[in-house]
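I wish you would study the pair of lines that follows with an eye to the fold:

===
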Amino acid sequence: LIPDMDQATNRLWDLLPAGNLFGKIFRNLMLRHRTISHSVLGIWILYKVLEFIVPRILNPNYVNLEIVIASILIGFISHIAADMLTKEGVPLLFPLPFKIGFPPFESLRIKTGKFMENFVVFPSVIIYLVWLVSTRRNELLALIKLINN
């Protein structure tokens, strides 16, 4: 959700109080989709914002703030890495005016919302998650118990 905050359809804005108002303001600051929010600069800005906000909204006596921040950043960076697999690529070195994708040849990358993403990538991710949960059940339960204590 976080890297795509610059899109009007992002569910994050629906979850926040006065989200539509903040969403409009934020989208105007972001210029357009896949700019600052999909760059190294965006990663650094998010890190600094989290470093400021997380200690103010979570109690460090109950939650390891570093793990929370690292988890959010891992999700953010994973999203950007996945977007690098699309034909559009990402402006990783924004404000430099070029986009980076992997593989380097655009013809080998995935077209967003088309057959490859919907019927190969998405089902593969679901199968992987089911496999992960079924093979690591005990570790996941131990982690959940640790979080609940």
